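ok posting inputs for the S-adenosylmethionine job
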Amino acid sequence: MESAHALSAPSPWIVRWAPLVAPGAEVLDLACGAGRHARHLAARGCTVVAIDRDAEAIAALATVAGVFTRRADLEGEPWPFAPASFDAVVVANYLHRPLFAPILDALRPGGVLLYETFMVGNERFGRPSNPDFLLRPGELLEVVRGRLEVVAFEQGETATPRAAAVQRICALNGPARRATLG
Ligand SMILES: C[S@@+](CC[C@H](N)C(=O)[O-])C[C@H]1O[C@@H](n2cnc3c(N)ncnc32)[C@H](O)[C@@H]1O
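and the output
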């Protein structure tokens, strides 16, 4: 039987923009689950703090070189990081709107935000269907407006890895740098 935390491939969006995160960078993988993005960034030479409330999900991550796991309830406990603690923050398939502000604050100057999750319209395909867990059209652009410089943004329906409505952003905490995107 497949484990509830079976490791799936990293999101192509995160893989696409990961080259903006330099080797040696300190990265936060928020609500990391089994850590597909923590593993991807650690394999690129980053140091990753991978945080989730699910101890079982993060257990296997603890032995991955470059990944430091932390168990916390991000919605029921105080935000655990000081401002400007990370060179990049990755959030995938997780939404708790009160965390938008601390997520942005957690970025160091020049830091990279990679965020991808479900948006309104996903209810036609399945879960999540609760509006609390679905971004509104353009919401990630609103969240970063005046704070971060948008490198790339997409929203709409996708067929892979399954039919879904998603929204994605890559944004920088500072002027856009010339980057090698691979
Ligand atoms: C759909 S999974 C996404 C996992 C990972 N980001 C990925 O893309 O593979 C959502 C994750 O959010 C975590 N999560 C949900 N509520 C949380 C909370 N209050 N505090 C910490 N983690 C939470 C779950 O345990 C789960 O691992």
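notes: The chain has one domain: 12-172. The chain has a mean pLDDT of 93.
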